Structures are given as C-alpha cells and as structure tokens.
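User: Continuing from earlier, I have the next pair ready.

Assistant: Great, send them over.

User: Here they are, in order.

Assistant: Folding the first of the pair now:
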Amino acid sequence: MKRAGGETSAAAGAGALCILVASVLWGTTGTAATFAPDVGPLAIGAAAMGLGGLLQALVAARPVARQASALRARRGVVLLGALAVAVYPLAFYSSMRLAGVAAGTVVSIGSAPLASAVVERVVDGRRLTRRWTTGAALGLSGTALLCLAEAAGAHDGSGARPVGSTVLGVGLGLVAGVTYALYSWAAHRLISRGVGSGAAMGAVFGIGGLLLLPVLALTGAPLVESWSNAAVGAYMALVPMFLGYVLFGWGLAHVPASTATTLTLLEPAVAAVLAVLVVGERLPLLGWFGIGLVIGCLAVLTAPSRAPAPSPASAPSRAPAPSHPAPAPEPGQVTTG
C-alpha cells in the first residue's frame, strides 16, 4: 500500500515539476517577442504555436499512428482542443501587444484556472478540493495585483497606453484564458481515456498547427526579413512551444487539468520579472506582492500531503491484511510526499 501510494505521489510530484518548468519557458515568450518589434502578434502566435505544434506532431507520429482508432473515436474532443490551440496564441500575443507584456500574460494565464475549473465541474462533475480552492484564491489574487500594478505603471508618464487598447487587450486575454483551459482539458480528457500523452498532444497540437498555417502565410513575411526576427520565431517554436508543451503533456498525465492550469500561474510571475529586467517595464511594490502570492499558491498546491498516522488500536495484531493500491489523489490536489 505504501509503495503504490508512494509511486502515485512521486508521479504527481514529477508531473507538477514538469508543468512548472514549462511555465518558466512560457514566461519568456512575451519578452522574446519584443526582440522582433516589426513582427505582428498574429505572425508571432502563428509561428510559435503553429510550427511548434507541427513539430510536436512530427515527433509523435508513431504514437499517433498506433492510437489512430482511439483518437478517431474521440474526434470531437481532439477537434475542440485543436481549435482552442489555434485561437489561443492569436489572442494571447495580441493581448500582450495591446495591454503590455505583464498585464497580457497575467490576464491570459490568470483566468485559465477558473475557466478550467468550470469546464471540469460542468463536463466531468469533478469536485475541487479545499487545497485547490485555497491555492487558486492566492494565485488569482496575485495575478490581479500584478494586473493592477501594470496598469498603474502604464500611467506613470513613461508611455501610457490608450484605455481602449488596454480594454481590448484584457478582453483578448480572457479569450486566451478560456481557450487555454479548453485545450488543457481536451488533452487531459484524451490521456485519462487511455490515449498516450505523446499521441494526445501530437494530434491536438498538430491539427491546431495546421489551422494556423494560413495565418502564418498571410502575416509571417516579416519573420524572414531579418536574422533577428527569424531567430525569435525559431526560439518561440522550438523552446517554449515544442519543449514546453512536451513537458506540459507529460504533466497532464499525472495531475488534473484544473491543477495544471493553476500551477501555470508561475508564468505571469516569470513574465513580469523579465518584463522589468529585460524589457524595462516598471513594476510597483504592489506587483511584487502579487508575485509573492503566486509563489504562495504554488507552495500550497505542491506541498506534501500528510496522511494521518494509524492509531495503535487499529494496528493488526496478527498477519497484515492483503495490500491494495492506494487511492489516487483527489481532483485538484497534487501530492509529492
């Protein structure tokens, strides 16, 4: 029993770690995009997620072929996830361009856990744990403070953005958050129904990448006009999108989608810090406090669960009873101990 529980806990902890590493990689995308200012957000998004998705499908070609019948049987989930993959980067990078790197990332990623929780509650009937609720409250409070700090910094006389632009950017960030939650749920749904993580992510992101190719063809000319622009596009496709989503897919095989999207609240914190250190955006004290709350959220979600010690009265006096596999963690909970 202890072995089974330990294996489950270890896998959940490793899955959470993979998602956190992916979040750090994703947190670099907004700053990387600023090194190609002549490339529009649609082109950046189409290149990053489109090429990254196609590469992921290419690497996972064999698993996809082996599980083609299982994927066809769940084609509705695959297509929903692929459509969300295609919409997400267009909304996400447009949000950052309009509202700023920190605010766009905060709204896009910060709204995803709530959207994911609603999807899981409505579609799967999943009950969210008190731990997830506490962690999500901390994380969302932190992202809200980051957003307020970014808005305050934008009006310090160093280049304030028009209100209409900021509002549109926030709206697109909400669209990005919903689509992010949808493709995370779709991938987790496929994996939990017996499809391997490589095949699930390869199919969803491969089809999503195909849907983005027309956008890339129409808007991507600036990517080949200079070596710096091409380098930005290559980095976005290979590192945060390809490598990041390989790690994310493995993590989704071991933690619920609602927990995964909450763990990715690390991304806006990384994006905000890089925006200050590299891009030159200002982050008031309120924003740093928000980052602290996000870190608190991650600590709550990844802290080891302490199982109550058995009482002496309940200990077996003779031969131990046959062992049974330990139950899986409750939805919304990551166990690492």
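And the other member of the pair:
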Amino acid sequence: MNRFRKPLKRSIFIGSMIFILVLCLFLNILTYSNFRKALYSSYEERITDILVYVHSHIDLDDLSHCVDTLEESEKYKELMTLMDDVVEQFNIHYLYIITPLNGNETDNMLIVLSATTEYEREYHIDEEIVLGYICHDDYSAEMAQAHLNAMNKDEISFQEERSSWGDDYTGFLPLIDSKGKHFALLCVDIDIAEIHDAIQTYTTANVGLIAALGVLFMVLLQLWLNENIITPLTNLEKSVSLFAEIAHDQTDPTKLWLDVPPIHTQNEVEGLYNAISQMSQDMHSYVMNITNMEEKVSNLKTQVNYMDMLAYQDSLTKVKNKAWYDKTSQRVNEEIEEGTAEFAIIMADLNYLKKINDTYGHERGNEYIFGACKEMCQIFSHSPIFRIGGDEFVILLEKLDYMNRNTLLAQIELVFGDSANNTSKEPWQRYSVALGMAIYAPETDKTIEDVFKRADKTMYENKILMKAARE
C-alpha cells in the first residue's frame, strides 16, 4: 500500500519526463527557426540577384512613359524579351512589373509587363494580360495595400503571398524614374511549396529523432534510478519503518536491530554522475550535429558562390576570363548608351610564346604566360585584366587608372622592355609583350567593340614594329 502522497519513484519519473519534454521542445523550436531562416535567406539572395539583374536592363524613364501613355516602346519590347528569357533560365514562378492603383478589393492593380514562358506563349495562356490590363479581383485589398507600401520604399522588400496562383515568396523592387517618381514595382515570385515541404520534412524527422532520443533517455534514466537510488532507498525506508514498528514499546534490546541491505553510497553517487554526464554528452552531441547541419548548409552556399567565381576566372593566371569580359562589355555598353562611359582599353599580346612552347615545352610556356600576367597585375592593380585568348589580354582602364593611363602605359612598356632585354634570366622569364591602347571617343565609338578594335589594331602595328626592330 502506498503510504506517501508523492512517492519518490513517481516524482522522479514525472520530473524527468517534464525535463526531457521541455528540452525536446526547445531543441525543436531552435533547429526549426534556424533551418527556416537559412532557407528563406537563400531565397532572398536569389530573388535579389534576379531583381538587380533585370533592373540593370531597364530604361526607367522610357518605361515610366510607357506606363503613363499605355503604349509599348522599342525598349519596352526588348525588356519583355529579356524578362521572358530570365523566367526560362532561372526557373522562377513569375516575373512581372505592376503599378498598384489603390488599396480596394477590385480594380487595384495595373499590369505593366508580365514575362511568359515559351509554353505559355505557345498555348496563349494569359495572353490578355498586357500593358494596361487592370486586375479586377486577383489581388485582395490587403495584398494591394502591401504592394502600395512596397512601391513607396527605396529598397527591396519581401513578402510571402498566398493567392489563387499558389504560395509564393515575392521580392519587390520599386522603379523610380529620373524625376524621383515611384511609378511601378518589379516583382519576382518564387514558388515556396518546396520550402514548406522541406521544412515539414525536416521538422517531422527532427521531432521524431528528438522524441525517440527523449524516450530512450527517459527509459534508461528510470531504469538506472530504480536500480541505484529508488530501490535502495525503498529498501532502506522499509527497513527503517519495520525497525520503528518493532522498536515501539520494545523492551528486548536484542530485537532492536536495523536490517538494512548493503548500500554503497559512493558507487551510487558516482554512477549517477556518470549517467548524467553521459546523457549530457549525448545531448551535446545531438546539438552539435544540428549545428553541423547548419554549417553544411552555409558551406553549400559558399561552394555555390565559389563555383560562380571559377566560372569567370582563368585557371592559369587567376585573372578574369573571356566570359567575364563579355559580361563586363554589356555593362560598359549600357554606360555608353546612358552617356556616362569614360574608359580606355589596352590590348596586350605576348611575343615568343610559340617559340618557348616549341623549344622548352608547354610547362615553361605556362610560366611565361603567368609571369607576364603578374607584371601586368602589379602595375594595373586597380583595373580588371581579362585573358581572352592563349596569349592575349585585355586591360579595362576606368576611374583613377583611366586618368593615369599614359603614365601606366609608359610604365608597363618600360617594365616589359627591361624584362625582354635581361639576358641574365631564362628565356621564359624574359617577358616581351606588344601593347596597344585606345581611348573611348563618344563622337565615334558606338560600343566597346569599336574601342577594342582600335586597341587591337594599334597593338598589332606595334607588334610588327617590334618584330622589324628584332630583325
């Protein structure tokens, strides 16, 4: 019969169960929060990259005029083509430009431009959604107000949206013309069903794992307590109670005997300490595993960024490659169109590379390329250098290096002249380079390619002169 209101066995069981449940709940909340934050951060970075890329190709004043007149311009059509390509390439849900009209339930949104996929164009899906189309009941008053608030900002904002089109994570970039007018929103929708699925899967697995560990720890702890604390103390209590009953009004001293089973206190305390330490270590190991999972997610993001960097880097010289030059050319051409371009190009072509390869081998030829490139990097430390061919390099001079272009050109010619004539060095260490520089002229040059051709022509002429001087 139970003689106590709060038996030690029940109290320890309830206390240990509550402790493990609270700990499991805390770990679940912590890991869920960190995992969700990491996923959404990666989506925000992806959305931001797309918004910035598309925004860089928008003529804001022209588009603002299109919104005012509801008439498509040539630049509007070019932008439409670009946005259609972006939707196809980046596998996003929607890419569109809209102008919030009001915060009402209906007629609250004006469509400026909505990108479509090849499939949608082929089957004429949403073909009526064109410039000037007004959405009647597609946006709730709450969504319309959220778009109005986003358009009045000066930065990118994000919002999770649930609509008839699905669950999306949306990035808003306000479009502002040269007069400071906020006239539209550039929006990117990414389907987040996979985020919800990932979070649900992760949370289910995490809850199951923590619950299993919790139950395991609770069972093991209860067994250990029964064996090392509860049973010995129960036996002791029974022995003491029996002794008290016998000792009451007992007159026979021989019967005043406390029969206590052997109890080794030091071993029990040490065992309890070891069990708690082991449980603590197991819990720590689990938390460390969760932390390692977050670190792996971060490492995956780092690897993606590293792969992006390698895609635009020359493997031998570590300078930018032809792909990055083409990308940079797009940016420079945009500045030429805007009338803000100011730059010069230096073409550099290595001399004797074929002779060194044929005479001393390609390994020495690579040393020759790397060493010559290193000299250029040291002098043009503030300018991008591109390796566009086996022995051809392009140097784009802007800002400070553009202002000091003549000094830098004279310096590099002197460096390569001294190197080529230094007979104390090995042949593959005597760097000889033909150089040609051309300066962007707004009145004649339409694209960066025009400047490139003049620099290449000058370099070729200098190469002929150098060859004639050697002969």
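Worth noting for the second one:
The domain at 320-470 is CATH 3.30.70.270 (Alpha-Beta Plaits). Residues 272-281 have pLDDT under 50 and may be disordered.
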